[in-house]
Amino acid sequence: MRIIICGAGEVGTHASEVLDGKGHSITVIDAHAERLSGIEDRMDASTLIGNCAHADTLMEAGAEGADLLVAATDNDEVNLLSASIARRLGVLKTIARVHDYDYLVQKSIDYKRSLGIDRLICPEFSTATAIAQTLRNPAALAVENFAGGQVEMQQFRTTARAKAIGRPLSQLSLPEGVRVAAISRGREVMIPDATTTIEEKDAVFLVANANVFDAAHRLFVGKAPTRQKVVINGGTTLAAWVCRFLRGRNFAVRLFERDPERAEQLAADLDWVTVINEDPTDAAVFQEERIGEVDDFVSLLDDDEDNIIGAVLAKSRGVNQVISIVQRSHYLDLLYDIGVDRAFSPRIVASQEIEETLDDSRVRRLSSLERGVLDIWRVRPGDASEILNQRLRTVKLTPNWSVVAIQRGSDTTVPTADDMIESGDVVLVLGRHDMEPELRELFDAR
To answer: Which CATH number fits domain 352-442: 3.30.70.2740, 3.50.30.40, 3.30.70.1450, 3.10.20.310?
Structure first.
């Protein structure tokens, strides 16, 4: 494929390296020559100095007939304009990276549709979603997150006093938008049906719409967990998003921000969070605030080295779980080597979203569970699929598969037994690893 990357910053450069490594023909545009100087040395890519929002520059880069343009400069408006112009010049698909979440939420206008852009991505928002998901499920054996947090999947063990124990699924008062997708019991892994009975210490794969997940979870584990104590290091935009994702949950969040004006602003915007104008890595502050006793320390500063230092100090001083972000992906392995529990890189998230946009395959394995026995599949049903326009209760899927979510346009939900899969939907299926040929046949996804 011929791909144009606008912007040679962290996201643009990393995306270029990933796509170049897959054999695509890459052209990188940037207004600053020094940013482009090392690209041709490190990869088989062309470079062009210029303003990617100018049609002439895009034409010189080969926009007419190009397969993909990724606008990943530091300026949202330049990205939106570049992607929109490129589409009109003949680029087949366009992606624009944005920092401002208002461009994504479509409150007053659908920017993506109005500007003719195929996809808007916000790596920081996606990273915040993943971090919040990790914090919300500290005891999970496996966690999967779908569709920007609209749907959650978690594996956990049932407890003796839970209401679900000893009852078949048909008798559980599960909220709408909840599904028990699979159960692991001893050496057996099963896709349950309505007659399956829940037993103590079952490992349950629960899938639910995000707004009802916690209520469903309590049916299988009993009372709500104790309040989780979280410290966030840095008052960045990403940190504010993490706080918003945790609002209304069972969390006590303290956010430390060094700049007094920024701390004051965050205190006003996030009134459910305790905002403290201090450096939590300072030994005196760490001791006075008893940070070593918290459940989670999350370092979300803009500087990679500061995040690494903060995370290591917190871990060495007794914090149970330490999470950090780094912009430079080559730091990820280092973080794990020095004891950080979870690490995230927004630019890797961006590359994954770009690759997903390029992937037109009808069946794609997203992840593997239970030692490879189960897989999560993204399926685009063909028009000849026998499952289309049939109520799910009438379609025999067990014991091999369970439809765990349906993506329709920008919405993703967990289906009820009376819901139907329609043409154009994207389906998320949990199923057995050795059944891919049958899965393709069922969904006409050859």
So the answer is: 3.30.70.1450
What are the pLDDT digits (tens) for 307-353? 999 999 999 999 999 999 998 777 887 888 888 888 998 888 888 88
Give me the phi and psi of 275, to 5 degrees please: -100, 130
| pTM greater than 0.85 (yes/no) | no
Q: Give me the architecture of the 2-121 domain, per CATH.
A: 3-Layer(aba) Sandwich (3.40)
Are 126-221 and 352-442 the same fold in CATH? yes
Neighbours of 2 (CB within 10 A): 17
Report the alpha-carbon distance of residue 364 to residue 356 in Å, rounded: 10
Report the b/e string of 120-131 with b at 16+ CB within 10 A: bbbbbbbbbbbb
Distance CA 68, CA 77 (A): 19
Q: pLDDT tens digits for 294-320? A: 999 999 999 999 999 999 999 999 999
Tell me which of 231 and 132 has the higher pLDDT. 231
190 has which bridge partners?
183
